[in-house]
Write a structure and sequence with these properties.
The complex is a heterodimer of chains A (about 210) and B (about 170). Chain A is an alpha+beta fold and about 210 residues long. Chain A is about 35% helix and about 20% strand. The N and C termini of chain B lie far apart (about 65 Å). The chains are: A alpha+beta (about 210), B mainly alpha (about 170).
């Protein structure tokens, strides 16, 4: 079998794969994305009106108090606790990682938060965690199961065009375990960097890593 | 460009490219249901910013890249060491990629899934989206020489895999 025959065979083997999703469903789904994107665009408009990047920080504090109600105003990131104790972190801008880390620690989530301002390819290597942190001595399978309990996948809402959502269940975090949370700009096909991605891992909670 | 015209353009684009994008993502992620969900989400994002995406030099590649980026986040959040199960270690191959009713030749699908992720991405871009080497390199953020190398290795591996499979099937 030469290259052309092989390529043809591979292509033809997929010829029966068809997407059955109606365009109306895609368009309807996109409307929800547009609504969620209005806020960052408004923020950009405010930034231009203020005429200086420094003014943005003054208008839009990075942190936000945890409370049982909805966010009073949108910021670089918000942390909300629902009545059941679950914490929802929404990141809209990669700004003030230290503030988010402190906010989470105050709410019982030992974490090391890193914001990367460039796109990169996530790896599964333990070297991906900060040097100040140590990986817990647990198997990969246990790690994955524990992350599933601590950070249940929020479904399609996890990734928005301009935000990423992480749900944390603090009561599921064992003693001496912390979270490593790394948000970064992923730029699919563009250089605008306006799509966020997130990777998480477990670390040993410690003063140099999670601050407690 | 009016809203009506934009909608028409996106609808045409979607209808013409959705199958190719689904196939490209399916090759990369290995699971039909996951691929469908990722592609639908990526097309929704494309629709929501169609004015920008429509000016992209390769809108189909934009959709596939967006879908694959979303998939990276999905599996990375769970810190799984591999993005798809190793078909060689799974007894029920159709269950690996949700292909109980899949029209894809299971031998070819299994051979594709045994390729390293980057090689599968290159195969997806080059074979199913018909992107040239330069555009594929740009979309994947790697050098053109790496694209050629990945593709050559992928084709060699697929040939070896399929030849071995056929020999095993034909042996008594």
């Amino acid at each position: 079998m030469n290259d052309e025959e092989l390529i043809t065979a591979v292509r033809e083997s997929f010829s029966g794969v068809h997407s059955a999703t109606p365009v109306e469903q895609i368009v309807g789904r996109s409307r929800g994305l547009r609504v969620r994107r209005q806020v960052p665009r408004l923020i950009s408009a405010l930034a231009v009106a203020a005429g200086a990047a420094a003014a943005v920080a003054a208008l839009l504090p990075a942190s936000h108090q945890v409370n049982s109600g909805g966010p009073a105003r949108l910021a670089a990131w918000t942390v909300q606790r629902d009545p059941g104790g679950t914490i929802k972190v929404t990141i809209r801008e990669l700004r003030d990682a230290a503030g988010l880390q402190a906010r989470l620690r105050a709410d019982g989530v030992p974490a090391n938060v890193v914001f990367l301002h460039h796109s990169f390819t996530p790896t599964t290597s333990t070297s991906a965690i900060p040097r100040s942190c140590r990986a817990p001595h647990i198997s990969d399978k246990t790690n994955a199961r524990l992350q599933d309990r601590i950070m249940p996948f929020p479904g399609p809402a996890a990734l928005g065009p301009n935000s990423v959502v992480l749900v944390i269940n603090p009561s599921a975090i064992p003693a001496r375990i912390g979270l490593f949370i790394e948000a970064f700009a992923a730029s699919p096909g563009t250089t605008t960097g306006d799509v966020f991605s997130l990777q998480t891992n477990l670390v040993q909670a410690s003063l140099p890593c999670t601050g407690s | 460009m009016g809203v009506g015209t934009q909608r028409l353009d996106f609808t045409d684009f979607y209808r013409e490219s959705r199958d190719d994008c689904l196939r490209a993502v399916l090759v990369s992620v290995g699971n039909r249901d996951t691929a469908q969900e990722l592609v639908d989400e990526a097309f929704a994002r494309a629709c929501s910013r169609w004015r920008t995406v429509s000016r992209h030099p390769a809108p189909m590649a934009w959709v596939v890249r967006t879908a694959l980026n979303a998939n990276i986040s999905r599996w990375r959040r769970r810190r799984r060491e591999v993005s798809v199960p190793d078909p060689g270690t799974v007894a029920d191959l159709p269950a690996v990629y949700g292909a109980s009713d899949s029209p894809v030749d299971p031998r070819i699908m299994a051979a594709l899934l045994r390729l390293p992720p980057r090689q599968r991405q290159v195969v997806a871009m080059r074979l199913f989206l018909d992107l040239d080497t330069a555009r594929t390199a740009h979309m994947l953020g790697i050098a053109p020489s790496s694209v050629k190398s990945h593709l050559a290795r992928a084709i060699a591996a697929l040939r070896d895999d399929l030849t071995r499979t056929r020999q095993q099937e034909s042996s008594p």
